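Hi, here's the filled form for the chain we discussed.

Project: internal
Contact: R.S.
Residues: 374
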Amino acid sequence: MSVLIRGSVHGVGSAQAAVFVQDGRIGWVGTGEPPQPADLELLARPGELIAPGFIDLQVNGFGSHDAAAGPDAISAISRLLPAYGVTAFLPTAISRPLPEARAFVEAVRHAPSPGARVLGAHLEGPFLSPSFRGAHEARSLQNPTPARVDEVLACQPRMMTLAPELPGALEAIAALHRAGVVVAAGHSGADYDQGLGAIEAGVRFGTHLYNAMREFHHRRPGLVAALLMDPRITVGIIADGEHLHDATCEQILQLKAPGHVALTTDQTAAAGAPAGRYRLGGQDVVSDGRAVRLEDGTLAGSAATMDELVRRMAQLPGMSLERAVSMASTSPAAVLGETDIGELRAGTRADIVILDGEHRVRLTMVGGRVVFER
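And the returned structure, exactly as it came back:
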């Protein structure tokens, strides 16, 4: 069945535009009439925006489900995320012993995707700095020896976050990059030169910029400056008002070129759920409904949703809803090298969200199928 969605379309710049969907893909985007009539027409309301579906690179859990629990939990997360505009995501595991990390990657590979697409596993660790571990357990952290890197390469995660200053890290980055793994820098005390070396070796993403990284200093700018200044790098930001001040988000947007800032939630099982106690990769965490912390007060992921981050970013000075949407869709798709999602253009998968006048999700479509509507 073919569907024509009429209204204001992201990237078109006209309130009289439309998206034509057929067989799960976008067949045409533009103004006027499509090349052929549609079986069904949907009309976006005044003030609404037809936008590409959101892509989240860091989902530890959602709706009381911890991704580390296995395929059933990941499938449940997939089913829930479209209500918040997310049409594709990377289930993420924090540092665990490598056999558990490998089992997690396999679980992600075999998890059904009844809602949002599962794009592969993100391993956040265990090759992280003990001094910048955040909520990661110290006993799970390891240096990236060749044998351990071979273990990771054997299971092929989609993304891996590591600390570039660790012994053997540059060799690990190069090996992972050659194998097609997206390598991210994070949980790191790397200095500026070490950051530049990591980028040369193959790092292409900065995991939750500023958080769990050495503080920026005017004489010792560190990894933060390397990630911000290099045009090859896209940085992930958790713009929930807890992990980053709004002024810090503004600074990042002024320093990084359009398309090189990606919104990421770093969601835990507490996201989309009431305040209370939850699990994060085998640990207990506590949510007050806004922030998620360990018992000692350490931030441990977020309770934010992607549509919430889009709304917050759209309100910043000099920002627009269109750019905020791109940060949640086009930018993360580019990080993964995905050319089939993240944009509304002919030939791509019909992963579409309609945002109402308050920038809240009214309808979400994955592969041309409506998976959420209110």
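Let me know if anything looks off before we file it.
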